[in-house]
From TrEMBL:
<protein>
    <recommendedName>
        <fullName>mRNA export factor GLE1</fullName>
    </recommendedName>
</protein>
<dbReference type="GO" id="GO:0005737">
    <property type="term" value="C:cytoplasm"/>
</dbReference>
<comment type="similarity">
    <text>Belongs to the GLE1 family.</text>
</comment>
<keyword id="KW-0963">Cytoplasm</keyword>
<dbReference type="GO" id="GO:0000822">
    <property type="term" value="F:inositol hexakisphosphate binding"/>
</dbReference>
<dbReference type="InterPro" id="IPR012476">
    <property type="entry name" value="GLE1"/>
</dbReference>
<dbReference type="InterPro" id="IPR038506">
    <property type="entry name" value="GLE1-like_sf"/>
</dbReference>
<keyword id="KW-0175">Coiled coil</keyword>
<keyword id="KW-0813">Transport</keyword>
<dbReference type="GO" id="GO:0015031">
    <property type="term" value="P:protein transport"/>
</dbReference>
<dbReference type="GO" id="GO:0005543">
    <property type="term" value="F:phospholipid binding"/>
</dbReference>
<comment type="function">
    <text>Required for the export of mRNAs containing poly(A) tails from the nucleus into the cytoplasm. May be involved in the terminal step of the mRNA transport through the nuclear pore complex (NPC).</text>
</comment>
<keyword id="KW-0509">mRNA transport</keyword>
<dbReference type="Pfam" id="PF07817">
    <property type="entry name" value="GLE1"/>
</dbReference>
<dbReference type="GO" id="GO:0016973">
    <property type="term" value="P:poly(A)+ mRNA export from nucleus"/>
</dbReference>
<dbReference type="GO" id="GO:0044614">
    <property type="term" value="C:nuclear pore cytoplasmic filaments"/>
</dbReference>
<keyword id="KW-0811">Translocation</keyword>
Length: 262
């Protein structure tokens, strides 16, 4: 509910502003230790990214309430935003976007970690699980760049707005695609913020969608094996439908004005 989200936001904002808040049955304040505020900034940013990786990965609709709180906190406390991007880029290099190359002297296990895979006892996580986590983080990012906390003063610009999404999309299409990963993340990103990009960039946006359909999807197809067709087909059908209908629907789970009255 909107009222519940306001409570959460106010509690986080109060904590970061040096006020005393109740946590675990006791009052805590960042004024209790000289490094407390730095620590809280770091852990909060890490927590937002983890919510993308875990909650949004399992429940796509969760991207919007988490993102609107993160966006509002970022606006008031810019340090949280810097640390959010640092955690996000480390856990999901594709959010930069960047495909790390294998460097000489780097072990395979370490390289898998750099690519974003979880490695435990030399066992690398399953591809499906890896893609699910990356999707969750990209969806959270795609929601965050288009949302603002509705109770802020709204005087300045969004601290990390849609122009960053436009740049991400353009950079993705300038890179050589990776099997499975590229198709999955382009679909996730466009499903969440395609509507917002379409409204903001209009004719320019449709040029990029045509490029995606006519040139980039065939390039992904060329490197995709038969066992990896699922993500490619999803992207292909999505882009085709959007270009044909000349529209992208609002994403499911988008926060409507009525939500804030709940």
């Amino acid at each position: 509910a909107g009222s519940k989200l306001r409570e959460i936001f106010d509690k986080i904002n109060n904590l970061l502003s040096g006020k005393s808040v109740q946590s675990g049955g006791r009052a805590v304040s960042v004024t209790q230790h000289p490094q407390a505020l730095d620590f809280v900034f770091y852990k909060l940013a890490e927590k937002f990214v983890r919510q993308g990786e875990e909650e949004v990965a399992s429940h796509h609709d969760a991207a919007f309430p988490i993102a609107v709180v993160a966006s509002g906190i970022w606006e008031i406390h810019p340090r949280v935003g810097d640390l959010f991007l640092a955690h996000l880029h480390k856990k999901c290099p594709y959010s930069v976007p960047f495909y790390p190359a294998l460097k000489e002297g780097t072990s395979m296990e370490e390289y898998q970690r750099i690519l974003g895979y979880q490695v435990k006892d030399s066992m690398v996580e399953e591809q499906d699980n890896f893609l699910k986590r990356m999707s969750g983080m990209i969806r959270l990012y795609a929601a965050l760049i288009q949302l603002r906390w509705p109770y802020g003063d709204q005087q300045g610009t969004h601290p990390h707005g849609l122009s960053y999404g436009w740049r991400w999309l353009a950079q993705m299409l300038n890179m050589e695609p990776l099997a499975d990963v590229t198709a999955t993340l382009l679909f996730d990103f466009l499903e969440v913020c395609g509507n917002a990009l379409m409204r903001q960039y209009q004719a320019q946006f449709w040029k990029i969608m045509l490029l995606l359909q006519e040139e980039y999807v065939p390039r992904i197809e060329a490197i995709t094996s038969s066992g990896q067709m699922g993500s490619l087909m999803r992207l292909k059908q999505f882009v085709q439908k959007c270009v044909q209908e000349k529209k992208i629907s609002l994403p499911t789970g988008a926060l409507q004005p009525a939500f804030w009255k709940s």
